[in-house]
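Appendix B, record 7
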Amino acid sequence: MIELKNCKIGYSNKVIFENLDLNIEMNVITAILGINGSGKTTLVSTILGVQKLLDGNIKILGTDLKKLSTKELAKFIAVVPQLQKPMFDFKVFDIVLMGRNPHLTSSPSKLDIKKTEEALKKVGIEHLAQKSYKQISGGERQMVNITRAINQDTPIIVMDEPTSYLDLQNQSKVMNLVKNLNEKENKTIIMVLHDPSHAMMFSQNCIFVEHGKVIYGQSRDLIIPEHIKRIYKVDSEKIEVDGNSYIVPLLVNN
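Structure tokens (predicted):
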């Protein structure tokens, strides 16, 4: 479990969350939702130790975050950042191999090479291994980023807007890969998402970030038209298709 107790989160000149208590369940997919600027990324950055915790206590699987070195934390949590234009021209294999960094004592071993090959095959992108990371598509780069996180071999994976800038086909590929990681490998997934529909379809739990507060619970209970209207100022409908619930935003003004 990721436990936040009496946490003050934000910056020296702007506190976003105060006296925040939150227990994020393990072995499920948790979506973090909220409008732009609500503090979603700041909350995640603080859990990752990137943003300094102003006060309170965070525990990752029972261990105080303050007592974990960067390398130790990287054995608990892998991160898939927002999709960005690549700066360096590495081969895909080398990008995925970087996921082994927390486990290295010197240069990559035969085991690290083997695990990298296995991760590429698991995701089905072994055909990209020798291609330039800069020259593959955005959807392929995101699959590579997730494969690198898988190769890090952590119980928790945090993803920051994993479907941003992707077309519908690649959104489907990424979200179904996330679902499989949870269902088949019992990975704990925490995702910052813009789309409540994705959260409804793919997450068991949900965190709504709103005006310095959070609402945490099961997605089917929280992602409802009343909350969508209050938080996003958009009407929506909750529909049932083949026994599954979906939230559909009504984006047309009458």
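Remarks on this record: The longest helix spans residues 168-185. The chain has a mean pLDDT of 91.
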